[in-house]
Amino acid sequence: MKRVGVIGAGSWGTALALLLARKGHEVVLWARRPVHASKLDRSRENASYLPGFPLPPEMVITSDLADVAEAELLLVVVPSHGLREVAGALAPHLSGGGPKAVVSAAKGIENGTLRTMTDVLQEELPPEAGARVAVLSGPSFAREVAADLPTAVTVAAQDHRVAAWVQEVMATGSFRVYTSTDVVGVQLGGALKNVMAVAAGISDGLGFGTNTRAALVTRGLAEMARLGVRLGANPLTFAGLAGLGDLVLTCTGDLSRNRQVGLRLGRGEALQAILDDMNMVAEGVKTSRAARDLAARHGVEMPITEQVCRVLHEGFDPREAVRELMLRPPRAEAEFV
Ligand SMILES: NC(=O)C1=CN([C@@H]2O[C@H](COP(=O)(O)OP(=O)(O)OC[C@H]3O[C@@H](n4cnc5c(N)ncnc54)[C@H](OP(=O)(O)O)[C@@H]3O)[C@@H](O)[C@H]2O)C=CC1
Ligand SMILES: O=C(CO)COP(=O)(O)O
């Protein structure tokens, strides 16, 4: 039994906290708003983000980061735009030995700095904790994990021993954990698939067919891998759970918030109205900009990302975006880099 701190009480943080508590670990779940923490504590259910799944009485709920300071495993599960601030607030509590692993379960790229989530953790945390940073990614809707449905994910860390330790602590009979040392590839897979899920949603919302969606998934994967390889990732990672696995899940699964944003855009709703109506995060909206900037910085072509950005942030007509994608100059399929 390990002491585990889960930082972030949205749907994913709550589902992971449940998974680990059911495995018998001592779990402390941190919510950023004291009022949310006391509501969770009183009702023993996360009605706002993960309704229908009772939180066991032994799970400690807090809004004080000092309460996770003693954890051996720390999971950071806040949206990517809030991760730096939370990591900065956590840092002073991690003096001494610190946790054996700090795992980012967020899927995004920081806008502006274009840093990955493990970069941000390494920049903000004390060096001993920064050296034990890992990332968890892969096809894993929170509701399905909370419902204990069979799920497989990847945990990547530079030091294989860190990933193997996290694997041992987190794996259950219904939550299979693979390890990797491709920290860049696993993170880019998780972040970029959200942009493609918006694209697939737009296509379905416009009433296009399954041919179109399959084309978007496949060419989306090609551009994800193209950027990943340029940044040093292993191309095989994109054929794995954190690449193709999560891409297929979120481009086809209606539980995906990113796909839902795309569907509604395709049906003609305005982005702001969609976002105002959602209490959950759709990371692809912000990541589309970061991905476009990262691609431009490294001279990598990402035509689908480019068009998603124009539709999301410049009010470009989605039908016109698809037309432009179809009429790009002809090329060979396997021109990889
Ligand atoms: N949900 C899922 O199925 C999966 C999600 N993820 C990833 O996990 C991360 C967290 O998402 P998820 O749990 O779904 O979130 P939700 O959309 O379910 O909930 C949002 C959570 O983020 C918190 N939050 C909002 N803004 C900030 C901020 N600026 N700083 C800190 N916390 C903030 C909210 O707190 P408050 O209530 O106080 O506003 C709330 O806890 C994302 O990167 C997502 O891509 C990964 C795999 C699966
Ligand atoms: O990352 C996810 C599942 O792996 C969740 O996807 P959404 O954020 O689109 O809901």
TrEMBL record:
It comes from the Bacteria. InterPro entries: 6-PGluconate_DH-like_C_sf, 6PGD_dom2, G3P_DH_NAD-dep, G3P_DH_NAD-dep_C, G3P_DH_NAD-dep_N, NAD(P)-bd_dom_sf. Its EC number is 1.1.1.94. NAD(+) binds at residues 8-13, 142, 257. PROSITE patterns: NAD_G3PDH. It is found in: Cytoplasm. Substrate binds at residues 107, 257-258. NADPH binds at residues 11-12, 32-33, 49, 107, 142, 257, 281, 283. Residues 182-322 form the Glycerol-3-phosphate dehydrogenase NAD-dependent C-terminal domain. Pfam families: NAD_Gly3P_dh_C (PF07479), NAD_Gly3P_dh_N (PF01210). One of its GO terms (cellular component) is cytosol. GO terms for molecular function: glycerol-3-phosphate dehydrogenase [NAD(P)+] activity; NAD binding. Its main location: cytoplasm. HAMAP family: NAD_Glyc3P_dehydrog (MF_00394). This is Glycerol-3-phosphate dehydrogenase [NAD(P)+].
